[in-house]
Amino acid sequence: MDAPARVLVADDEEDIRHLVALAVGKAGCTVVAAVADGAQALTVARAERPDLLVLDVSMPEATGLEVCLALRADPATDDCRVLLLSAGASPDDVARGLATGADAYLPKPFTVAGLVRQIQLLTAEHPG
């Protein structure tokens, strides 16, 4: 049987980190780390090479957009899937997020079911 997809969660709000980690589990994946800022997310992503990163757009140290750009610029992490979460839900916000190379963009507030579905979609091609 394939190993579950490995997911890194990064959000500066503890409640959101917990909620996202819950959704990751419901999606049949494993949380490799749950961190509170973009710099930590980048460090862990480079060390762990997760299959998916769920990144809040607004975080201290480095935004989710900056983390996504850094991941895409590094050959060691350019194939990691990225899901951005943001309170910014305008078409411009979504376009800006996807322009960084993110695979998907989910506006807050989101439902756990919607997040689970998005995680399942992004990890469906996980090689295992």
Question: Could you please describe the fold and organization of this structure?
Answer:
- This protein has a single domain, classed as 3-Layer(aba) Sandwich (Rossmann fold), CATH 3.40.50.2300.
- Helices cover 43% and strands 20% of the residues.
- It is built from five helices and five strands.
- It has a five-stranded parallel sheet with strand order 2-1-3-4-5, sandwiched between helices.
- It starts with 5 loop residues before the first strand and ends in a 5-residue tail after the last helix.
- The mean pLDDT is 94.
Q: How much is the radius of gyration in Å?
A: 13 Å
As a percent range, the share of helical residues equals 40-55%
Number of helices: 5
List the uncertain runs. Answer: none
Tell me the number of strands: 5
Morphology call? globular
Strand content: 15-25%
Major sheet summary line? 5 strands, parallel
Query: In the residues, how many domains can be counted?
Result: 1
For this structure, the CATH topology is Rossmann fold
Order of strands in the sheet with most strands:
2-1-3-4-5
CATH classification class: Alpha Beta
Straight-line distance between termini? 8 Å
Q: Which architecture does the CATH hierarchy give at level 2?
A: 3-Layer(aba) Sandwich
Q: Helix- and strand-based class?
A: alpha/beta
CATH superfamily, by name, is Response regulator
Overall pLDDT: 94
Order of helices and strands: EHEHEHEHEH
Give the helices and strands, then pairings:
Elements lengths: L5 E5 L3 H13 L3 E6 L2 H11 L3 E5 L7 H10 L7 E6 L4 H9 L4 E4 L4 H12 L5
Helix pairs in contact: 1-5, 2-3
